[in-house]
Amino acid sequence: KDSVVNIEDMRYFTADLTELLSLEASILADPTNTHLWLKLASVKLSDQNKSNKECLDQALSVLARGLEANRNDPDLWHMYLTLYRRYPEVKEFPEFCQTALEYAPSYELWFLYLDSLKTYSEKDEVCSQTLNFLSGVAREGRHSSSSNVQRIRKSHRANTILEKHHVEPGEKPQATAEVRNKISEIQNGNNTVDGDEMMEANDVGEATVIKSKRDTKQGPLIAEALKNSEVGGDTEPERTDSKSSKIMWKKLSHQILEMVVYKISLNLHTGRVKTAIHFLQMVLGLKKGASSTLDVVHLVTKADLLVLWMVYIHVVAWHQLPQHLLNVTNENPGRIMAKENITLSWSTKASLHTGVDSLLKLHDKATKVWETSEDDETTVYYVKLVQSRVSLLMLHNRHTEAILKCRSVLSHKTIVDVWLTTADVYASCNDSQNVKQVLSEALSTHRYSSKLQYYQCLLMYQQGETEMALRQLQQFVISHFDISSKDLLHCNHRQLYSQLLKQQEAFSLHTAQLKDGVSENLHKDIHMWLCYSLLMELEGRSADTVEIMERS
């Protein structure tokens, strides 16, 4: 779908009569347009002329009507269940989630179902079922052959249930009871599951997989992505030009990672540390598990696989998940909030549950993931892994090994952040001469790196070499432009920085010509702004420095 209206968006809709009539007319003309149903439900929910309960009843009624025509749409089911959950003491909510998953399985519905459960055993089982579902989606990508016949049979059963959802305000309690009874009939076997469906369940080994089988809309896209995108396997697949398939594959990979982390978090929160570690070892292929163990290594991108390795190292070392990975305001297992912020901060020896040599060996194994795929996204996490290893060595006063590790990385890859890490190691040893040498080597390789330039000039400034720092910042900005030697003396360095950063005042004057290959998006580079502000500070323009920092 091009766009989906979320519950948070409903404030943008008002119950204007003209709009309401137009919306309902459009739905009558095209009842399969789920976006219109979602929008109409949002309008009903935000009706200022009715009580909150009346608005909720009407919105649910609209969604029930929408599900009658689109019972296989997970977005309608998700909004329906999210709103239905607002009723106080909704005891049958997990059963309703099961119904939704039977007819429109999706990751968001599985997560909603998982969130509604209370006990460890229930949550742990549903985590496994969700991972099986995601694995099934990946398999459908490889062998897109779901049965349309099965879907039609399910649709027939869904009609009966959805009729009970189609209610007017005030009818909810009776309808709920009838729906609950209908769900109970299905679960108790009164609604016969046909032979083909049961055989399919037996082949897989889990009846719950019936709920995961569908002719998914994302199947063809994932098929292309699985064939062409970079995944965690040992072979290097061909790259695809299909942007949509790459996005779909990355989304699926993130969902698998998120559910694995949820299961780990669930075990850690309930004191099952050994279970969490054992599960991680199986999904990473470090130990052989049951034949049904999810093959995560071949289902996620290599970037996500590196994240999972960092999670494993952290759990082994501290028996807890890395900070900032999940919502810090919620102590319970939940969604991954910022995997790009994952770090392994080694601060004290006393808190470690594993020896340093064992942890270093795990770093070595994790590094092999990056060595087979040196793409930009994976490199971001590889740098974090290198920094983690160096920090661990420094904690145990193994400075020489830390320097050798940095140098070994730099011998075949010129990564800016590793140069800075190397400089930090020398700085911690009070070796200022080697700090300068490392930064000079780095700049000879990365001539246009504003990050390296800023830290080198900042170091000069802190050591009292103000004139040298100022001169280098001036030469740095000039290096981006095609300026003849006779014009160098007349250069306005502030104007050149303003031009690179696309400041309005720069274009009121004569602009210089950029050199070929210089990016036109340097205004998005925070370190270029920092170079400019440091230049202004070195020139004694403190007021201008504050203004520049505010603009950045």
UniProtKB/TrEMBL annotation:
Coiled coil: none annotated. It comes from the Eukaryota. InterPro entries: Red1, TPR-like_helical_dom_sf. One of its GO terms (cellular component) is exosome (RNase complex). This is Uncharacterized protein. It comes from Arion vulgaris. The lineage of its organism: Eukaryota, Metazoa, Spiralia, Lophotrochozoa, Mollusca.
